[in-house]
Design goal:
Layout: H1 2-20, H2 25-40, H3 47-51, H4 64-69, H5 71-74, H6 81-94, E1 100-101, E2 104-108, E3 118-121, H7 123-138, E4 145-151, H8 156-159, E5 166-172, H9 181-187, E6 191-194, H10 196-207, E7 217-220, H11 227-237, E8 241-247, E9 250-255, E10 261-263, E11 268-274, E12 281-288, E13 299-300, E14 303-307, E15 319-326, E16 331-334, E17 340-343, H12 345-355, E18 362-368, E19 371-376, H13 382-395, E20 402-405, E21 420-422
Parallel strand pairs: 4-5, 4-6, 6-7, 7-8, 18-21, 19-20
Antiparallel strand pairs: 1-2, 2-3, 8-9, 9-10, 10-15, 11-12, 12-13, 12-14, 14-15, 16-17, 18-19
Helix pairs in contact: 1-7, 10-11, 12-13
Bound molecules: zinc ion.
Length: about 425
């Protein structure tokens, strides 16, 4: 009960601040940055910077490896990485996701082994997270609603929010979809949450007449939602597909009524590290002003974000045109002049889907500097797609790439689907 009260207070605070500082977000962030600095005094890593009154711009830029290397010193709750890993791994093995250490919830982010992030949150931080999800994703209603949540791992976070009005049901994505059909039909969820590849499977079941549900809201999470997958899903479900952009580093962005993502500028400071001369793509460098047990200060994400300058909703929160993928999804080839050439996944995606309007399902893996593996769901179009990709690469001065056919989609049940991916070692 106490946690629910905390959520309610966090929600009121979030809404009041957003309303009060509507046109002065800078002031709100300044105020929150000041109060965060007081918490940073408990972080051996940041303490000196605070005492020296260092401006935020001069704080070191972090990335995953720097962050994990200084894990013990960065956090303000005195937890060591080895202890946190032990707790999180045990929870993962036993599939019991309610582990805490000194009252702090510990979680492991998905990722390749050795490259997994640790997520830590105090109860107050979890309350903030839930409040933000209620405010910006699920919405508040006095009607009874049920949420069908397709997840890799259950989390005590969601169960703790369940109430008379809002019921969460979990569907384990490690199980095949056929095993969920009956439960999904019986539940008739008002809200459906899943990653795009799972939403597409559900959409296929709807088209085959196996599933008959009519959720009022659909939320895509965890994977890149490409424009064509979004259109396909919107056609089947007959509504806007909403998104949540979140990672170990925080709840970053949620969609407005137009289905466009906006960063949570009321508690995040977003710096943009542009990746191209046209300033179209950038890596976000984020500072989360509400995370205190595990401070996220100037943390550079390797996601590739496309700039969006305006949104019909007129929100003052930074809009995102699309998330293109991660920097390790960028393909790298050697040109005819022996120069290294980067090709962003969006170029590959466009060439493929523009080959024929019925092509929606495909995957591309770069195996080496000169070999890519291509899977096209509608295999009769493979040769055409291959020709189109080859002529695109030639237009970029790359003649030497061999495109091999893959007969299966590069995707394992329960894993994230990445349509374009670079697996070559040299990247
Ligand atoms: Zn908008």
């Amino acid at each position: 009960m106490y946690f629910k009260l905390q959520i309610l207070l966090a929600l009121i605070k979030l809404r009041l601040a957003k309303w009060w500082y509507k046109n002065k977000l800078d002031k709100l962030r300044e105020k929150r940055w000041k109060s965060l600095q007081k918490q940073l005094l408990h972080s051996p890593f940041y303490q000196k910077l605070v005492l020296n009154k260092t401006p935020l711009d001069d704080y070191p830029i972090m990335d995953k490896s720097a962050f994990m290397a200084s894990f013990d010193k960065i956090n303000t709750v005195g937890i060591k990485l080895s202890e946190a890993l032990k707790v999180a791994e045990k929870a993962e093995q036993q599939r019991d996701f309610s582990p805490t250490l000194n009252g702090i919830t510990i979680g492991l982010s998905s990722g390749t082994s050795g490259n997994r992030g640790i997520f830590m949150a105090s109860q107050a931080e979890r309350a903030n997270w839930v409040a933000c999800i209620l405010d910006r994703v699920i919405g508040i209603s006095f009607k009874k609603r049920s949420v069908a949540f397709f997840l890799r791992a259950n989390s005590n976070l969601y169960s703790s929010v369940s109430s008379r009005l809002l019921k969460f049901s979990f569907f384990d994505i490690l199980q095949p979809m056929d095993q969920h059909i009956e439960a999904l039909n019986a539940l008739q969820p008002s809200i459906l949450v899943a990653q795009p590849s799972v939403l597409l499977e559900i959409a296929a079941c709807i088209e085959e007449g196996k599933v008959s549900i009519s959720p009022a809201k659909i939320i895509s999470v965890a994977e890149v939602l490409t424009p064509e997958d979004a259109r396909n899903l919107e056609g089947v479900f007959n509504q806007t597909i909403h998104q949540v952009y979140q990672c170990t580093e925080g709840l970053l962005a949620t969609t407005c009524e137009h289905g466009k993502l906006h960063f949570n500028d009321d508690f995040l400071i977003i710096e943009k590290k542009y990746l191209d001369e046209e300033k179209k793509r950038y890596h976000p460098i984020i500072t989360d002003l509400l995370r205190t047990s595990q401070p996220i200060i100037r943390y550079e994400l390797n996601d590739i974000i496309h700039e969006k300058n305006d949104c019909p909703c007129r929100s003052t929160f930074t809009a995102i045109e699309m998330i293109e993928g991660r920097s390790d999804d960028v393909l790298v080839f050697r040109s005819n002049e022996n120069k290294s050439v980067k090709i962003y996944p969006d170029f590959i995606r466009r060439e493929i889907i523009l080959t024929h309007p019925s092509i929606q399902d495909y995957t591309v893996i770069q195996k080496s500097e000169s070999i890519i593996e291509l899977y096209v769901g509608k295999s009769q179009f493979f040769d055409k797609v291959k020709q189109r990709l080859q002529s695109f690469l030639r237009s970029q001065g790359i003649d030497t790439v061999e495109i091999r056919q893959s007969l299966s989609r590069n995707h394992r049940q329960g894993k994230k689907l990445r349509r374009v991916q670079n697996e070559s070692q040299k990247n």
